[in-house]
Amino acid sequence: MAGGGGDGQLRLLGFWPSPFVHRVSLALHLKGLSYESVEEDLANKSDLLLASNPVHKKIPVLLHGGRPVCESMLIVEYLDDAFPGAGQAVLPADPYDRAVARFWAAYIDTKFFPALIKALMGTTEEEKAAATADTFVALETLEGALAERSGGEGFFAGDAPGFVDVALGGFVGWLSAWDKVTGVKLLDAGRTPLLAAWAERFAALDAAKGAIPDVDRIAEFAKALQARSAAAASS
Amino acid sequence: MAGEKKGLVLLDYWVSPFGQRCRIGLAEKGLEYEYSEQELLGDRSELLLRSNPVHKAVPVLLHDGRPVCESLLILHYLDEAFPNSPPLLPADPYARAQARFWAAYSDKVYEVGTRLWKLRGEEQARARDDMVEVLGNLDGELGDKAFFAGEAFGFVDLAVAPFTPWLPSYGRYGGFSVEREWPRLAAWARRCAGRESVAKSLQPPEKVDEYINVLKKHCGIND
């Protein structure tokens, strides 16, 4: 997995469609770190997962020498701290730039993701429509952030991808799959041209090819998830 | 930026536990700053709206005019921008990851607590169950240590301490006693309250309770 760097002690407990797991895989690839991938069955969580993340019982969990680190962007920060010489640093060096990068990663988690999940899994059509509108607002806000940070060219971090690119990049598979699942094009060059171009640029990275599963596979998974959710809501 | 105010300014609100985290951090690091009380129930100031256009919330730290938002991010920034002052986060990468995890987790105390005083019936009961889980997890992480960080006050202690004056109110709405259910956590809260940086930053529980009543009126809750 990934490059040959690292100390041979990294295991990633994951679930192949999870965008949060994709974030960690992306960071591992960008830093050229080798790791063992352990696929969890979320309907039947392993003792290892439950012991490693007793508070949230969620993936991803990174085990380093058997010690667990939880929460995707905390794992990414940990990789920078624990492997300072490996590949590229994901966070920038300047304290102010770091604060801004962490801010946008937090925004993606607290504003973008909750809207996205409701747009897919909302119990009523009204709820899904309102959440889709919220998702567009979040994407437009991120479009503004991209314009400010890099003038719209390259990545959020500049010439090379960084922390915010990884935070949003974990979702590129889902964003590309979205219109196959819902008929709505979330990354629309008409609405958010910079983000649409960024997504293509990001998906072309070696790290993305290594970390993001096939878009059609994600679309199938998302359709099944939506169908199960609709069945549960109407029963 | 030309004309921007030099030094540190903290846009904050007297009873905000998130703002208090920053005040404690600044005190622990011995950093001088200007405290700027913001209007949150009425119209927000131009400065706040300009400094945090996305969330329009406090705390915001201005450093030579440049805004840093989100309490835990502000604390990270203070450590990174002022490396010659006492560090808030531990040096070891694994300890840092653990400290970040628990500090972020502790945000739930306020999230769930708000549901506790706002909601009624089944929703309030769910909030109570969630609060019991959160406080139980925090108590478990503290264990028999003097502080979350071990022998000495550290990052997680700093992050959680501002919620302690809210616990008596949450206990009333939720029908539990922190003292009785989680005596180690209660003892830890008293230990933190004795620390100067914390004592100077926190409001007494009675004032917090009064404020919750103000918020209830503001939300149209009359009980």
Describe the structure.
The complex is a heterodimer of chains A (235) and B (223). Chain A has 10 helices and 4 strands. By secondary structure, chain A is an alpha+beta fold. Chain A has a 4-stranded mixed β-sheet, with helices on one face. The mean pLDDT of chain A is 94. Chain B has 223 residues and is α+β, with helices and mostly antiparallel strands. Chain B is built from 11 helices and 4 strands, in the order βαβαββααααααααα. Chain B has helices at residues 17-28, 46-51, 71-81, 93-118, 121-142, 155-160, 167-174, 178-181, 183-193, 196-201, 205-218; strands at 8-12, 34-37, 60-63, 66-69. In chain B, strands 2-1-3-4 form a 4-stranded mixed β-sheet, covered by helices on one side. The longest helix of chain B is centred in the middle third of the chain and has 26 residues, at 93-118. The termini of chain B are far apart. The mean pLDDT of chain B is 96. Chain A binds chain B through residues 55, 64, 67, 69-71, 74-75, 77-78, 81-82, 95-96, 98-99, 102-103, 106-107, 141, and chain B through 54, 63, 66, 68-70, 73-74, 76-77, 80-81, 93-94, 96-97, 100-101, 104-105, 137.
